[in-house]
Amino acid sequence: MPHKELVHTLRGLVGASQVLCEGDLSAYELDWRGRERGKALAVIRPGSTAEVAAVVKACAAAGVSMVPQGGNTGMVVGSTPDASGEQVVISLGRMNAVRTLDADNLTITVEAGCVLQNLHTVCDAAGLLFPLSLASQGSCTIGGNLGTNAGGTQVVRFGNTRDLCLGLEVVTPQGAIWDGLTGLRKDNTGYDLRHLFIGSEGTLGIITAAVMKLYPAPRAKMTALVALPSLQAAVALLGLAHAHLGAGLTGFEVMGQFALSLVHKHFPQQRVPFFQTVPYCVVLEHSDTESEAHARNQLETLLEAAVAKGCAVDAVVAENIAQARALWHIRESIPLAQAKEGLNIKHDISIAVSRIPDFVAQAEVALAHSHPGIRLVNYGHLGDGNLHFNVQAPEGADAQAFLRDEEGPINAVVYALVDAFNGSISAEHGIGSLKREKLVAHKSPVALDMMRAIKAALDPHNLMNPGRMLKPGGTHSDSATH
Ligand code: FAD
Ligand code: MLT
Ligand code: ZN
Q1: What does each C-alpha distance from 194 to 161, 181, 191, 468, 482 come to in angstroms?
Q2: Which tens digit of pLDDT belongs to each residue from 1-16?
Q3: Which residue, by CA, sits nearest to atom 4 of ligand 2?
Q4: How far are the Cα atoms of 45, 233, 336, 361 from residue 260, in angstroms, in the given order?
Q5: Structural domain for 196, as ranges
Q6: Measured from the CA of 146, which atom of ligand 1 is nearest?
Q7: pLDDT (tens digit, 9 = 90+) per residue, 343-360?
Q8: Residues 35, 102: one domain?
Q9: How confident is the model over 402-455, as pLDDT tens digits?
Q10: Does residue 116 lie in a domain region?
Q11: Ligand located closest to 154 CA
Protein backbone atom coordinates (compact mmCIF):
# COMPACT_ATOMS: atom_id res chain seq x y z
CA MET A 1 0.00 0.00 0.00
CA PRO A 2 1.53 3.37 -0.93
CA HIS A 3 2.16 5.72 2.00
CA LYS A 4 -0.56 8.15 0.95
CA GLU A 5 -3.13 5.39 1.07
CA LEU A 6 -1.89 4.22 4.49
CA VAL A 7 -2.22 7.73 5.91
CA HIS A 8 -5.76 7.87 4.54
CA THR A 9 -6.57 4.52 6.18
CA LEU A 10 -5.06 5.64 9.50
CA ARG A 11 -7.16 8.83 9.44
CA GLY A 12 -10.21 6.64 9.06
CA LEU A 13 -9.15 4.53 12.05
CA VAL A 14 -8.31 7.21 14.63
CA GLY A 15 -9.77 10.42 13.19
CA ALA A 16 -8.01 12.90 10.92
CA SER A 17 -7.03 15.21 13.80
CA GLN A 18 -5.04 12.39 15.46
CA VAL A 19 -2.83 11.78 12.41
CA LEU A 20 -0.14 14.45 12.30
CA CYS A 21 1.89 14.80 9.10
CA GLU A 22 2.67 18.47 8.82
CA GLY A 23 3.80 21.42 10.88
CA ASP A 24 6.37 21.37 13.65
CA LEU A 25 6.62 17.77 14.85
CA SER A 26 9.85 18.34 16.84
CA ALA A 27 8.23 17.14 20.06
CA TYR A 28 7.93 13.71 18.44
CA GLU A 29 10.92 13.74 16.08
CA LEU A 30 13.76 15.16 18.20
CA ASP A 31 15.10 13.14 21.12
CA TRP A 32 15.26 14.74 24.60
CA ARG A 33 19.04 15.14 24.54
CA GLY A 34 19.02 16.73 21.09
CA ARG A 35 21.28 14.00 19.78
CA GLU A 36 19.24 13.05 16.67
CA ARG A 37 16.40 14.55 14.67
CA GLY A 38 14.23 12.08 12.74
CA LYS A 39 11.46 12.52 10.19
CA ALA A 40 8.15 10.69 10.60
CA LEU A 41 5.82 9.62 7.83
CA ALA A 42 3.09 10.45 10.34
CA VAL A 43 2.50 10.67 14.09
CA ILE A 44 -0.57 8.68 15.11
CA ARG A 45 -2.33 9.33 18.41
CA PRO A 46 -4.74 6.42 19.05
CA GLY A 47 -7.28 6.79 21.86
CA SER A 48 -7.89 3.15 22.81
CA THR A 49 -6.33 -0.30 22.77
CA ALA A 50 -8.63 -1.28 19.89
CA GLU A 51 -7.40 1.73 17.92
CA VAL A 52 -3.75 0.84 18.62
CA ALA A 53 -4.43 -2.69 17.35
CA ALA A 54 -6.14 -1.39 14.21
CA VAL A 55 -3.29 1.06 13.53
CA VAL A 56 -0.68 -1.67 13.98
CA LYS A 57 -2.58 -4.03 11.66
CA ALA A 58 -2.78 -1.34 8.97
CA CYS A 59 0.92 -0.46 9.26
CA ALA A 60 1.90 -4.14 9.25
CA ALA A 61 -0.22 -4.76 6.14
CA ALA A 62 1.54 -1.82 4.46
CA GLY A 63 4.97 -3.04 5.60
CA VAL A 64 5.55 0.28 7.39
CA SER A 65 7.59 0.22 10.59
CA MET A 66 6.36 1.73 13.86
CA VAL A 67 8.02 3.61 16.72
CA PRO A 68 6.08 3.48 20.01
CA GLN A 69 6.44 6.73 21.93
CA GLY A 70 5.48 7.89 25.41
CA GLY A 71 6.83 11.14 26.83
CA ASN A 72 9.93 11.11 24.60
CA THR A 73 12.22 11.63 27.59
CA GLY A 74 14.41 8.60 26.84
CA MET A 75 18.17 9.02 27.01
CA VAL A 76 19.33 6.71 24.21
CA VAL A 77 17.45 7.84 21.07
CA GLY A 78 14.89 5.04 21.15
CA SER A 79 11.54 6.77 20.85
CA THR A 80 12.00 9.00 17.80
CA PRO A 81 11.78 7.95 14.14
CA ASP A 82 14.83 7.56 11.93
CA ALA A 83 15.50 10.13 9.20
CA SER A 84 13.89 8.15 6.37
CA GLY A 85 10.44 9.74 6.59
CA GLU A 86 9.07 6.21 6.29
CA GLN A 87 8.31 5.33 9.92
CA VAL A 88 5.11 5.94 11.76
CA VAL A 89 5.33 7.20 15.37
CA ILE A 90 2.58 5.74 17.56
CA SER A 91 2.21 8.14 20.45
CA LEU A 92 0.35 6.75 23.48
CA GLY A 93 -0.27 10.20 25.01
CA ARG A 94 -4.06 10.09 24.67
CA MET A 95 -4.31 6.73 26.43
CA ASN A 96 -3.77 8.17 29.89
CA ALA A 97 -6.64 6.86 32.00
CA VAL A 98 -6.42 5.14 35.35
CA ARG A 99 -8.72 2.16 34.77
CA THR A 100 -9.01 0.84 38.34
CA LEU A 101 -7.39 1.28 41.72
CA ASP A 102 -7.79 -1.82 43.90
CA ALA A 103 -6.74 -0.70 47.38
CA ASP A 104 -7.21 -4.17 48.93
CA ASN A 105 -5.07 -5.83 46.27
CA LEU A 106 -2.62 -2.89 46.42
CA THR A 107 -2.70 -2.50 42.63
CA ILE A 108 -3.54 0.12 40.07
CA THR A 109 -4.43 -0.58 36.44
CA VAL A 110 -3.36 2.25 34.24
CA GLU A 111 -3.07 3.03 30.54
CA ALA A 112 0.36 3.31 29.00
CA GLY A 113 0.19 7.03 28.22
CA CYS A 114 -0.47 8.03 31.84
CA VAL A 115 2.19 10.52 32.94
CA LEU A 116 4.07 9.18 35.96
CA GLN A 117 3.35 12.26 38.06
CA ASN A 118 -0.39 11.91 37.45
CA LEU A 119 -0.18 8.35 38.70
CA HIS A 120 1.48 9.65 41.87
CA THR A 121 -1.31 12.19 42.34
CA VAL A 122 -4.01 9.52 42.12
CA CYS A 123 -2.15 7.22 44.54
CA ASP A 124 -1.41 10.03 47.01
CA ALA A 125 -5.11 10.89 47.13
CA ALA A 126 -5.85 7.26 48.07
CA GLY A 127 -3.17 7.26 50.81
CA LEU A 128 -1.08 4.82 48.80
CA LEU A 129 2.42 4.91 47.36
CA PHE A 130 3.56 4.16 43.82
CA PRO A 131 7.30 4.36 44.40
CA LEU A 132 8.79 4.83 40.91
CA SER A 133 10.41 8.29 40.94
CA LEU A 134 12.35 9.99 38.14
CA ALA A 135 13.24 13.62 37.56
CA SER A 136 11.35 13.31 34.25
CA GLN A 137 8.13 12.26 35.97
CA GLY A 138 6.24 15.35 34.80
CA SER A 139 6.55 14.10 31.21
CA CYS A 140 7.50 10.41 31.10
CA THR A 141 4.74 7.82 30.86
CA ILE A 142 4.18 4.47 32.49
CA GLY A 143 4.44 2.82 29.03
CA GLY A 144 7.85 4.39 28.52
CA ASN A 145 8.90 3.44 32.06
CA LEU A 146 7.98 -0.16 31.31
CA GLY A 147 9.50 0.00 27.82
CA THR A 148 12.83 1.04 29.35
CA ASN A 149 12.49 -0.75 32.70
CA ALA A 150 13.27 2.64 34.24
CA GLY A 151 15.15 2.84 37.53
CA GLY A 152 15.14 6.20 39.28
CA THR A 153 15.68 7.21 42.86
CA GLN A 154 13.75 4.60 44.91
CA VAL A 155 15.26 1.42 43.46
CA VAL A 156 17.34 0.78 46.58
CA ARG A 157 14.08 -0.12 48.37
CA PHE A 158 11.48 -0.93 45.70
CA GLY A 159 13.43 -2.16 42.66
CA ASN A 160 13.15 -1.14 39.01
CA THR A 161 9.89 -0.70 37.06
CA ARG A 162 9.98 -4.43 36.30
CA ASP A 163 9.68 -5.16 40.02
CA LEU A 164 6.62 -2.95 40.28
CA CYS A 165 4.63 -4.53 37.46
CA LEU A 166 2.12 -7.36 37.91
CA GLY A 167 0.57 -7.51 34.45
CA LEU A 168 0.46 -6.01 30.98
CA GLU A 169 -1.85 -5.46 28.06
CA VAL A 170 0.11 -5.50 24.80
CA VAL A 171 -0.60 -5.04 21.10
CA THR A 172 1.64 -7.45 19.20
CA PRO A 173 3.47 -6.52 15.98
CA GLN A 174 0.67 -8.28 14.09
CA GLY A 175 -2.01 -6.20 15.79
CA ALA A 176 -3.34 -8.87 18.18
CA ILE A 177 -4.22 -7.83 21.73
CA TRP A 178 -2.72 -9.80 24.65
CA ASP A 179 -4.64 -9.16 27.86
CA GLY A 180 -2.31 -10.05 30.72
CA LEU A 181 -3.84 -7.61 33.22
CA THR A 182 -4.38 -10.17 35.98
CA GLY A 183 -2.86 -8.33 38.92
CA LEU A 184 -1.77 -11.67 40.36
CA ARG A 185 1.28 -11.86 42.59
CA LYS A 186 1.73 -15.55 41.86
CA ASP A 187 1.21 -17.13 38.42
CA ASN A 188 3.54 -19.86 37.20
CA THR A 189 1.62 -20.82 34.08
CA GLY A 190 4.47 -20.99 31.62
CA TYR A 191 6.84 -18.30 30.34
CA ASP A 192 6.28 -14.97 32.06
CA LEU A 193 5.67 -12.93 28.89
CA ARG A 194 5.38 -9.70 30.86
CA HIS A 195 9.12 -9.74 31.44
CA LEU A 196 9.83 -10.00 27.70
CA PHE A 197 8.02 -6.74 27.00
CA ILE A 198 9.40 -4.86 30.02
CA GLY A 199 12.68 -3.31 28.95
CA SER A 200 12.15 -4.27 25.29
CA GLU A 201 12.19 -0.58 24.23
CA GLY A 202 9.25 -0.90 21.90
CA THR A 203 10.92 -3.59 19.78
CA LEU A 204 8.50 -6.45 20.56
CA GLY A 205 5.09 -4.78 20.77
CA ILE A 206 3.18 -1.83 22.17
CA ILE A 207 2.26 -1.81 25.85
CA THR A 208 -1.20 -0.29 26.13
CA ALA A 209 -1.93 -0.81 29.85
CA ALA A 210 -0.38 -2.26 32.98
CA VAL A 211 -1.18 -3.40 36.50
CA MET A 212 1.30 -1.81 38.89
CA LYS A 213 2.03 -2.58 42.55
CA LEU A 214 1.20 -0.12 45.28
CA TYR A 215 2.43 0.20 48.85
CA PRO A 216 0.97 1.81 51.96
CA ALA A 217 2.17 5.41 52.16
CA PRO A 218 4.82 5.82 54.88
CA ARG A 219 3.87 7.81 58.02
CA ALA A 220 6.98 9.97 57.69
CA LYS A 221 9.79 10.68 55.27
CA MET A 222 13.04 12.29 56.35
CA THR A 223 15.60 13.62 53.90
CA ALA A 224 19.20 14.58 54.59
CA LEU A 225 22.02 15.98 52.50
CA VAL A 226 25.24 14.47 53.77
CA ALA A 227 28.71 15.88 53.09
CA LEU A 228 31.36 13.22 52.49
CA PRO A 229 35.14 13.19 52.50
CA SER A 230 35.38 10.67 49.62
CA LEU A 231 33.47 8.22 47.43
CA GLN A 232 34.78 5.39 49.60
CA ALA A 233 33.05 7.12 52.52
CA ALA A 234 29.80 7.11 50.54
CA VAL A 235 29.99 3.31 50.24
CA ALA A 236 30.68 3.03 53.96
CA LEU A 237 27.73 5.35 54.70
CA LEU A 238 25.50 3.18 52.50
CA GLY A 239 26.45 0.11 54.56
CA LEU A 240 25.67 1.97 57.79
CA ALA A 241 22.36 3.21 56.38
CA HIS A 242 21.30 -0.33 55.45
CA ALA A 243 22.22 -1.53 58.91
CA HIS A 244 20.48 1.32 60.78
CA LEU A 245 17.40 1.83 58.62
CA GLY A 246 16.75 -1.56 57.03
CA ALA A 247 13.76 -1.31 54.67
CA GLY A 248 13.40 2.34 55.75
CA LEU A 249 16.25 3.34 53.44
CA THR A 250 14.35 4.55 50.37
CA GLY A 251 16.85 6.84 48.64
CA PHE A 252 20.63 7.06 48.41
CA GLU A 253 21.87 9.35 45.63
CA VAL A 254 25.45 10.49 45.27
CA MET A 255 26.57 13.76 43.65
CA GLY A 256 30.13 14.76 42.79
CA GLN A 257 31.17 18.35 43.39
CA PHE A 258 31.37 19.23 39.67
CA ALA A 259 27.79 18.00 39.18
CA LEU A 260 26.77 20.28 42.07
CA SER A 261 28.67 23.18 40.54
CA LEU A 262 26.63 22.83 37.32
CA VAL A 263 23.41 23.09 39.33
CA HIS A 264 24.83 26.14 41.13
CA LYS A 265 25.81 27.73 37.79
CA HIS A 266 22.64 27.06 35.79
CA PHE A 267 20.07 27.32 38.58
CA PRO A 268 21.54 30.06 40.80
CA GLN A 269 18.23 30.42 42.65
CA GLN A 270 18.83 27.01 44.26
CA ARG A 271 20.80 26.92 47.50
CA VAL A 272 23.38 24.13 47.29
CA PRO A 273 24.64 23.21 50.77
CA PHE A 274 28.31 22.15 51.00
CA PHE A 275 29.01 23.74 47.62
CA GLN A 276 32.75 23.54 46.95
CA THR A 277 33.52 22.20 50.41
CA VAL A 278 33.63 18.41 50.01
CA PRO A 279 34.21 16.11 47.01
CA TYR A 280 30.87 14.29 47.30
CA CYS A 281 27.43 14.68 48.82
CA VAL A 282 24.63 12.14 49.25
CA VAL A 283 20.89 12.70 49.34
CA LEU A 284 19.65 10.13 51.82
CA GLU A 285 15.95 9.40 52.36
CA HIS A 286 14.43 7.46 55.22
CA SER A 287 10.76 6.39 55.13
CA ASP A 288 9.14 5.29 58.35
CA THR A 289 5.93 3.45 59.12
CA GLU A 290 5.78 4.65 62.77
CA SER A 291 5.99 8.40 63.21
CA GLU A 292 7.94 11.50 62.28
CA ALA A 293 9.65 11.59 65.69
CA HIS A 294 10.76 7.97 65.28
CA ALA A 295 11.99 8.66 61.74
CA ARG A 296 14.00 11.71 62.81
CA ASN A 297 15.49 9.85 65.73
CA GLN A 298 16.62 6.95 63.55
CA LEU A 299 18.09 9.25 60.93
CA GLU A 300 19.94 11.37 63.49
CA THR A 301 21.36 8.25 65.15
CA LEU A 302 22.62 7.08 61.76
CA LEU A 303 24.21 10.45 60.96
CA GLU A 304 25.92 10.62 64.36
CA ALA A 305 27.35 7.13 63.81
CA ALA A 306 28.51 8.14 60.32
CA VAL A 307 30.34 11.24 61.58
CA ALA A 308 31.89 9.21 64.43
CA LYS A 309 33.18 6.64 61.93
CA GLY A 310 34.54 9.35 59.61
CA CYS A 311 32.29 8.47 56.69
CA ALA A 312 30.39 11.77 56.92
CA VAL A 313 31.72 15.24 57.55
CA ASP A 314 28.47 17.08 58.10
CA ALA A 315 24.79 16.89 57.19
CA VAL A 316 21.65 18.97 56.88
CA VAL A 317 18.34 17.32 57.72
CA ALA A 318 15.20 18.76 56.13
CA GLU A 319 12.83 20.20 58.74
CA ASN A 320 9.73 20.05 56.56
CA ILE A 321 8.43 18.88 53.20
CA ALA A 322 9.51 22.06 51.41
CA GLN A 323 13.09 21.64 52.61
CA ALA A 324 13.08 17.96 51.65
CA ARG A 325 11.81 18.90 48.18
CA ALA A 326 14.59 21.49 47.88
CA LEU A 327 17.26 18.88 48.70
CA TRP A 328 15.83 16.42 46.19
CA HIS A 329 15.51 19.23 43.66
CA ILE A 330 19.29 19.74 43.71
CA ARG A 331 19.81 16.10 42.73
CA GLU A 332 17.02 16.12 40.15
CA SER A 333 18.36 19.28 38.50
CA ILE A 334 21.67 17.70 37.49
CA PRO A 335 20.52 16.29 34.09
CA LEU A 336 18.98 19.64 33.15
CA ALA A 337 22.04 21.56 34.35
CA GLN A 338 24.21 19.25 32.28
CA ALA A 339 22.02 19.79 29.22
CA LYS A 340 22.30 23.56 29.71
CA GLU A 341 26.08 23.25 29.91
CA GLY A 342 26.01 21.68 26.44
CA LEU A 343 25.93 18.38 24.57
CA ASN A 344 27.58 15.66 26.64
CA ILE A 345 28.54 12.01 26.75
CA LYS A 346 26.53 9.88 29.17
CA HIS A 347 27.75 6.66 30.74
CA ASP A 348 24.90 5.01 32.61
CA ILE A 349 26.89 2.22 34.22
CA SER A 350 26.45 -0.24 37.03
CA ILE A 351 29.15 -1.96 39.03
CA ALA A 352 29.12 -3.79 42.36
CA VAL A 353 28.73 -0.98 44.92
CA SER A 354 31.83 -2.10 46.79
CA ARG A 355 33.99 -1.60 43.67
CA ILE A 356 32.70 1.81 42.59
CA PRO A 357 35.38 3.91 44.31
CA ASP A 358 38.11 1.87 42.60
CA PHE A 359 36.37 2.13 39.26
CA VAL A 360 36.03 5.92 39.53
CA ALA A 361 39.64 6.34 40.65
CA GLN A 362 40.93 4.30 37.71
CA ALA A 363 38.60 5.94 35.18
CA GLU A 364 39.61 9.43 36.37
CA VAL A 365 43.30 8.61 35.91
CA ALA A 366 42.77 6.98 32.49
CA LEU A 367 40.67 9.87 31.16
CA ALA A 368 42.96 12.58 32.57
CA HIS A 369 45.71 10.88 30.61
CA SER A 370 43.79 10.27 27.35
CA HIS A 371 41.66 13.45 27.34
CA PRO A 372 43.16 16.18 29.51
CA GLY A 373 40.73 18.99 30.29
CA ILE A 374 37.50 17.01 30.07
CA ARG A 375 35.03 17.58 32.89
CA LEU A 376 33.54 14.58 34.69
CA VAL A 377 29.96 14.87 35.86
CA ASN A 378 29.69 12.04 38.32
CA TYR A 379 26.42 11.36 40.15
CA GLY A 380 23.70 8.78 40.45
CA HIS A 381 21.99 5.99 42.23
CA LEU A 382 24.83 4.74 44.41
CA GLY A 383 22.44 2.66 46.48
CA ASP A 384 21.92 0.51 43.35
CA GLY A 385 25.54 0.56 42.17
CA ASN A 386 24.40 2.78 39.26
CA LEU A 387 26.57 5.77 38.39
CA HIS A 388 26.02 8.40 35.75
CA PHE A 389 29.69 8.84 34.92
CA ASN A 390 29.21 11.56 32.32
CA VAL A 391 31.66 13.65 30.36
CA GLN A 392 31.40 17.30 29.44
CA ALA A 393 33.72 18.80 26.80
CA PRO A 394 36.62 20.89 28.08
CA GLU A 395 35.64 24.43 29.08
CA GLY A 396 35.18 26.58 25.98
CA ALA A 397 35.46 23.66 23.51
CA ASP A 398 32.97 23.18 20.67
CA ALA A 399 30.80 20.44 22.21
CA GLN A 400 29.46 19.23 18.87
CA ALA A 401 32.96 18.76 17.44
CA PHE A 402 34.14 17.25 20.72
CA LEU A 403 31.39 14.64 20.61
CA ARG A 404 32.04 13.88 16.94
CA ASP A 405 35.76 13.32 17.49
CA GLU A 406 36.05 12.08 21.07
CA GLU A 407 32.88 10.19 22.00
CA GLY A 408 34.20 6.93 20.52
CA PRO A 409 37.64 7.07 22.15
CA ILE A 410 36.20 8.17 25.52
CA ASN A 411 33.59 5.42 25.47
CA ALA A 412 36.33 2.92 24.67
CA VAL A 413 38.28 3.94 27.79
CA VAL A 414 35.24 3.92 30.08
CA TYR A 415 33.61 0.75 28.78
CA ALA A 416 36.87 -1.21 28.82
CA LEU A 417 37.05 -0.45 32.53
CA VAL A 418 33.38 -1.31 32.99
CA ASP A 419 34.13 -4.72 31.46
CA ALA A 420 37.19 -5.13 33.66
CA PHE A 421 34.96 -4.48 36.70
CA ASN A 422 32.32 -6.91 35.38
CA GLY A 423 29.78 -4.09 35.13
CA SER A 424 26.99 -3.09 32.74
CA ILE A 425 27.17 -0.39 30.03
CA SER A 426 23.50 0.42 30.52
CA ALA A 427 22.09 0.23 34.02
CA GLU A 428 18.73 1.91 33.51
CA HIS A 429 18.50 3.94 30.28
CA GLY A 430 18.48 1.08 27.80
CA ILE A 431 20.19 0.73 24.42
CA GLY A 432 18.09 2.61 21.82
CA SER A 433 20.18 3.48 18.79
CA LEU A 434 22.92 5.29 20.74
CA LYS A 435 24.32 2.14 22.36
CA ARG A 436 23.39 -0.45 19.75
CA GLU A 437 26.96 -1.00 18.58
CA LYS A 438 28.15 -1.11 22.17
CA LEU A 439 25.68 -3.86 22.99
CA VAL A 440 27.22 -6.07 20.33
CA ALA A 441 30.67 -5.42 21.71
CA HIS A 442 29.83 -5.94 25.39
CA LYS A 443 27.13 -8.62 25.57
CA SER A 444 27.81 -12.32 25.30
CA PRO A 445 27.21 -13.83 21.83
CA VAL A 446 24.96 -16.45 23.38
CA ALA A 447 22.80 -13.78 24.99
CA LEU A 448 22.67 -11.79 21.73
CA ASP A 449 21.60 -14.87 19.77
CA MET A 450 18.74 -15.52 22.21
CA MET A 451 17.67 -11.87 22.01
CA ARG A 452 17.66 -12.02 18.19
CA ALA A 453 15.67 -15.27 18.26
CA ILE A 454 13.03 -13.65 20.48
CA LYS A 455 12.85 -10.61 18.20
CA ALA A 456 12.54 -12.80 15.07
CA ALA A 457 9.83 -14.95 16.67
CA LEU A 458 7.65 -12.07 17.83
CA ASP A 459 8.36 -9.55 15.07
CA PRO A 460 9.49 -11.58 12.03
CA HIS A 461 9.11 -8.64 9.63
CA ASN A 462 11.10 -6.30 11.89
CA LEU A 463 8.41 -3.64 11.99
CA MET A 464 8.49 -2.68 15.71
CA ASN A 465 11.08 0.00 16.36
CA PRO A 466 13.57 -1.62 13.96
CA GLY A 467 17.23 -0.90 14.47
CA ARG A 468 16.72 -0.01 18.12
CA MET A 469 18.56 -2.16 20.64
CA LEU A 470 19.42 -4.82 18.06
CA LYS A 471 21.24 -4.15 14.81
CA PRO A 472 19.09 -5.27 11.86
CA GLY A 473 20.45 -8.47 10.35
CA GLY A 474 23.18 -8.77 13.00
CA THR A 475 24.48 -12.25 13.76
CA HIS A 476 26.59 -13.69 16.50
CA SER A 477 29.65 -13.24 14.29
CA ASP A 478 29.31 -9.47 14.92
CA SER A 479 29.78 -10.10 18.60
CA ALA A 480 32.82 -9.98 20.76
CA THR A 481 34.09 -13.31 21.98
CA HIS A 482 33.21 -13.01 25.64
P1 FAD B 1 9.94 7.40 25.65
O2 FAD B 1 11.17 8.22 25.74
O3 FAD B 1 8.85 7.94 24.82
O4 FAD B 1 10.32 5.94 25.13
C5 FAD B 1 11.40 5.23 25.68
C6 FAD B 1 11.46 3.84 25.03
O7 FAD B 1 10.31 3.09 25.39
C8 FAD B 1 11.47 3.86 23.51
O9 FAD B 1 12.25 2.80 23.04
C10 FAD B 1 10.03 3.66 23.13
O11 FAD B 1 9.86 3.08 21.86
C12 FAD B 1 9.56 2.74 24.24
N13 FAD B 1 8.15 2.92 24.58
C14 FAD B 1 7.52 4.07 24.97
N15 FAD B 1 6.23 3.82 25.22
C16 FAD B 1 6.03 2.51 24.97
C17 FAD B 1 4.89 1.66 25.02
N18 FAD B 1 3.70 2.11 25.38
N19 FAD B 1 5.06 0.36 24.68
C20 FAD B 1 6.26 -0.12 24.31
N21 FAD B 1 7.36 0.63 24.24
C22 FAD B 1 7.24 1.93 24.57
N23 FAD B 1 15.55 7.06 33.44
C24 FAD B 1 15.79 6.22 34.47
O25 FAD B 1 15.75 5.01 34.30
N26 FAD B 1 16.11 6.73 35.71
C27 FAD B 1 16.15 8.05 35.97
O28 FAD B 1 16.44 8.46 37.09
C29 FAD B 1 15.87 8.93 34.91
N30 FAD B 1 15.87 10.27 35.11
C31 FAD B 1 15.63 11.11 34.06
C32 FAD B 1 15.67 12.49 34.27
C33 FAD B 1 15.45 13.36 33.23
C34 FAD B 1 15.50 14.84 33.48
C35 FAD B 1 15.16 12.86 31.94
C36 FAD B 1 14.89 13.78 30.79
C37 FAD B 1 15.12 11.50 31.71
C38 FAD B 1 15.36 10.61 32.76
N39 FAD B 1 15.32 9.23 32.57
C40 FAD B 1 15.57 8.39 33.62
C41 FAD B 1 15.07 8.68 31.23
C42 FAD B 1 13.57 8.55 30.86
O43 FAD B 1 12.76 9.47 31.53
C44 FAD B 1 13.07 7.13 31.12
O45 FAD B 1 13.73 6.24 30.26
C46 FAD B 1 11.56 6.95 30.95
O47 FAD B 1 11.21 5.66 31.38
C48 FAD B 1 11.09 7.13 29.52
O49 FAD B 1 9.68 7.29 29.51
P50 FAD B 1 8.95 7.99 28.28
O51 FAD B 1 7.48 7.88 28.47
O52 FAD B 1 9.47 9.36 28.08
O53 FAD B 1 9.40 7.04 27.09
C1 MLT C 1 19.20 10.66 36.46
O2 MLT C 1 19.46 9.81 37.29
O3 MLT C 1 19.16 11.87 36.75
C4 MLT C 1 18.84 10.22 35.09
O5 MLT C 1 19.04 8.88 34.86
C6 MLT C 1 19.07 11.15 33.98
C7 MLT C 1 20.50 11.29 33.53
O8 MLT C 1 21.30 10.41 33.67
O9 MLT C 1 20.79 12.32 32.95
ZN1 ZN D 1 19.55 7.86 36.64
Answers
A1: 12, 10, 9, 20, 29
A2: 679 999 999 999 999 9
A3: 335
A4: 39, 18, 12, 19
A5: 98-216
A6: 47
A7: 999 999 999 999 999 999
A8: no
A9: 999 999 999 999 999 999 999 999 999 999 999 999 999 999 999 999 999 999
A10: yes
A11: 1
